[in-house]
UniProtKB/TrEMBL annotation:
Gene3D superfamilies: Ribosomal protein L30, ferredoxin-like fold domain (3.30.1390.20). One of its GO terms (molecular function) is RNA binding. Residues 14-79 form the Large ribosomal subunit protein uL30 N-terminal eukaryotes domain. This is 60S ribosomal protein L7-1. Transmembrane segments: none annotated. The keyword Ribonucleoprotein applies. One of its GO terms (biological process) is maturation of LSU-rRNA from tricistronic rRNA transcript (SSU-rRNA, 5.8S rRNA, LSU-rRNA). One of its GO terms (cellular component) is cytosolic large ribosomal subunit. CDD domains: Ribosomal_L7_archeal_euk. Belongs to the universal ribosomal protein uL30 family.
Length: 251
C-alpha cells in the first residue's frame, strides 16, 4: 500500500506575476460591480422621487380631461356635414396619433370602440354616418384618409393579423382564412380579403371584425405633435389621399 506521502502530489507552481494579475482582475470586477449597484440604487431612488405626483398634477389632469370632454361636445355641435365635405371614398383608414392622460374617459371609450386602444394603432372603417360622427368626437387624437389599393395590400400582407376565439392569428396561410375564419362568406385567400376591403364589399363588417388593429411604427417625420386639423397645418383629421404618404412611413 502506498503511503500518504506518496499519494500527495506537489502543488503546481504559479508565478507571482500571474497571482498578482488574478488579484487585480478580481478587485477590478468587485469594484465594477459595486459601482453598478450604487448607480442602480441612485437611479431607483431618483425614479421613485419622479413617480411621486404632486396634488397640482392631479388637478391639472382632471382639468385637462374635463376640457377634453367640453371640446368633444363642441365638435358634435358643429353644422351638419355639407355635400362638399362628404367623403370621396367609402373606405377609410384611421390612425391614432395622440392621447394619453389628457383624454376624458368618454373619448378613450370611443377610441377603444374604433379598435384604436394604443397610439399608432390603425384600422379600416366604412365611411358611414355613425363612424364619421365618432371620428368627429375624437378628431384631435386621430388622422384618417382614403387608402389606395397598394396601401391596403401592403398593410394586410405586412401588418395584418386576425382574431379567432380571442387568440391572435397570423395571416400566413390561406387555410386559416378559408377554414377557420371567413370561408363561409366566400373569402378563401388573402387576395379575396384585400378585394373585399378595397371595394367595401357586402362582408366588409365580418372581415373587419376578424382583423385586429394594425400596429404601426412611429414615423421619423410626417407628424408635428399638433392637435390642429391637417388642413390647418396640424396632424389630425382628414388627410384624404395624403394618408397613403403617412402610412408608407409607418409600415
Amino acid at each position: 500500500m502506498a503511503s500518504v506521502e506518496e499519494e500527495q502530489k506537489p502543488l503546481a507552481y504559479i508565478p507571482e506575476i500571474v497571482l498578482k494579475k488574478r488579484k487585480h482582475k478580481e478587485e477590478s470586477i468587485a469594484l465594477t460591480r459595486k459601482n453598478q449597484l450604487e448607480l442602480g440604487a441612485r437611479a431607483e431612488k431618483k425614479r421613485k422621487v419622479h413617480d411621486i405626483k404632486r396634488p397640482e398634477h392631479f388637478v391639472k389632469e382632471y382639468r385637462d380631461r374635463e376640457l377634453d370632454l367640453i371640446r368633444m361636445k363642441q365638435r358634435t355641435k358643429r353644422p351638419k356635414t355639407s355635400k362638399s365635405a362628404v367623403p370621396k371614398s367609402k373606405l377609410l383608414f384611421v390612425v391614432r396619433i395622440q392621447g394619453k392622460n389628457d383624454m376624458h374617459p368618454k373619448v378613450r371609450k370611443i377610441l377603444y370602440r374604433l379598435k384604436l386602444s394604443k397610439v399608432f394603432d390603425g384600422a379600416f372603417m366604412k365611411a358611414s354616418e355613425g363612424v364619421l360622427e365618432m371620428l368627429k368626437r375624437v378628431e384631435p387624437y386621430i388622422t384618417y384618409g382614403y387608402p389606395s389599393v397598394k396601401t391596403v395590400t401592403d398593410l394586410i400582407y405586412k401588418k395584418g393579423h386576425g382574431k379567432k376565439d380571442n387568440q391572435r392569428v397570423a395571416l400566413i396561410d390561406n387555410n386559416i382564412i378559408e377554414q377557420q375564419a371567413l370561408g363561409e362568406y366566400g373569402i378563401l385567400c388573402l387576395e379575396d380579403l384585400v378585394h373585399e376591403i378595397t371595394t367595401v364589399g357586402p362582408h366588409f363588417k365580418e372581415i373587419n371584425t376578424f382583423l385586429g388593429p394594425f400596429s404601426l411604427n412611429k414615423p421619423k417625420d410626417g407628424l408635428q405633435g399638433k392637435k390642429a386639423l391637417f388642413k390647418d397645418g396640424g396632424d389630425s383629421g382628414n388627410r384624404e389621399d395624403k394618408i397613403n404618404d403617412l402610412i408608407s412611413k409607418m409600415n
